[in-house]
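Hi Y.,

Following your request, here is the sequence exactly as I used it, all 255 residues.
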Amino acid sequence: MTARTARPPLLREFLLVVGLFLVYKFGRLLAPDHTAEAIRNAHRVWDLERAVRLPGEGAVQSVLLHAESLAHLANTYYAAVHFPATAAFLVWLYLRRPAHYVWARRVLATVTAAALVVHLAFPLAPPRMLTATGLVDTARVFGPSVYGPPETDRLANQFAAMPSLHFGWAVMVAVGLIVATRSRWRWLWLLHPLVTLLVIVGTANHYWLDALVAAVLLGLALLTIHVPHRTGLAVSRGRRHLARSGERGLVGANR
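Below is the corresponding structure, written out as C-alpha cells. Let me know if you'd prefer a different format.
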C-alpha cells in the first residue's frame, strides 16, 4: 500500500461493508440450534477462568449495581456505541486517510470473518445465561435491552460470546485513530476499548476470555495486514515543508 493510495469508489465500499455486515449478522442461520452445547461451553469457560484465577466478572458488575443510572448507562453504551462508533471511524478514515481506511477495513473484515468461524465452531452462552455465575442480566433488569428471548430471537446470535467483537472492534478503532493521527491527545482513544471492556463484562454479556480471544485475533490480523507508513496528507505536508525550507535557503543565499 503506497502513500498515494486513492480513495476507493464510494458505492463499492458501501456495498462491501454492508455485505460483510449482513454476512456476519445472519451467519447464525448457517448453524443449527445449539443451546445445550453453548451452555456446556459456558461452564467450561467459567471453570477455566476460575482455574487460572482471573478476576470474577461479578467484581465489575457489583459497581454497576450500586446505581440504577450507572447500569442503565452501561446498557446504553453496549447497545448504542458499538456499530455507530465503528462506522464513524471508517467514514472518517475514508474521507481523511484513504490508505488507512483500506488497511482498517481489511483488518476489521479479517477479524470479523475469523470471529464468525469461532462463533459457529464454538457456540458460547454469555455469563448472563449461566446460573453458576450469579450475575444479573442488567439489560433485562434496568434496560435498554437489544436481545429478545434466545429461543425466539432470530436477529442476533446470542450464543456468540467468544470472541467479543464489541471489544475487538473497539480496540481496532483506538489503534486505527492512534496510527492515523498525530495529535498528542490521540492516546486517549484507548479509553474506548477500556470502557467497552468494563461494559461488556459488567453487563454480563461477555467473559474476560471473550475479550482476550478477540485481542489475539486482532493482533494476528495486524501482524499480517501491514499499516501504511505514510498517507497522502503526510506526503503533501512533507512537500510543503521542503518548499518552505528551499525558500529559506534561497533567501539566505542572497544575503
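DSSP finds eleven helices and no strands in the chain.

Thanks again,
Q.
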